[in-house]
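ARCHIVE CARD
SHELF: 3
SLOT: left
DATA:
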Amino acid sequence: MGIRIQPTQFARGEVPDTQNYPVEAATSFLRGSPVDADASGDLIEHPGGSTVTGIVGFSLEEAVSGAGLGPTGRVGVAKAGEKQIYLCQAVAAAAGAIMTDLSSFIVGEQYGMVKSTAAATLGEWFLDQGDTTDVVFQVTKIDDNLNTLWVFVIPSAVRPF
């Protein structure tokens, strides 16, 4: 299991911009998954890949069969935006292992995201080092000690909601 995408730094010491949303009935996803909203305003898991718009944020909890695990059934989301910095890990491909050598990353570069198909991290989302075309993240800090990257979602990928 990797470190799931989570909010880590906020502008001027503020708390993360979060909101609770209902979840679309047939939807299940893990904590740290990118989420979008359907036409009814219910959360769905963002498809990733070449879909580089529509990111509302990243889930702060798991959803199972259309409901969050808390008492309200809603799921908390750390909303995307340039002021919201996330902590994440990287893979070189969907089936790849979590990268431990981050020397190829440069602050300011942009990358895509991918949902893991590897057994150890199945269903978890990561920065995709191999995707510099369908970009959603911009790197702001590299932490070689924890093998993590600090990123924000680029404005063109954010869906205000």
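SLOT: right
DATA:
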Amino acid sequence: MAVHFPEVTTFGTLMSFAMALEELAIELCGAQGDPAAGLAKKHKKRLARLEEVRRERLNEVILEPLHGVDAARHLDGLHPSNDESAARLALLERRSADFYLDSARLAGNMLAEIARIFERLAKENQKLSSEVEPLL
């Protein structure tokens, strides 16, 4: 399954990008088999949390334009898409943490609650990265 990463131009596309990161993590965890089943479950919960936040809390700012977002740098090194290695999963955890920290700063100006969620997701990615290490 190919995961689509949108260009980040609004809060709505910022959330779509975040959800795509989680979808890719779920896919890569699945490729690792049973050792990564716990990680996949965590990413599924995170995806559900992002979907809930988007549905319930972003209505008023979903189309608010964002400027200066370089989302592509958070995907650097994650291609080719046919690489399902644990190394790619580890890199994804690190890139996701960076994305969530950058997004928390952006969201902090408009939505403090979204910023806190992104900060929490970044911290979780940093911890999840250490859980991927034994799979390498």
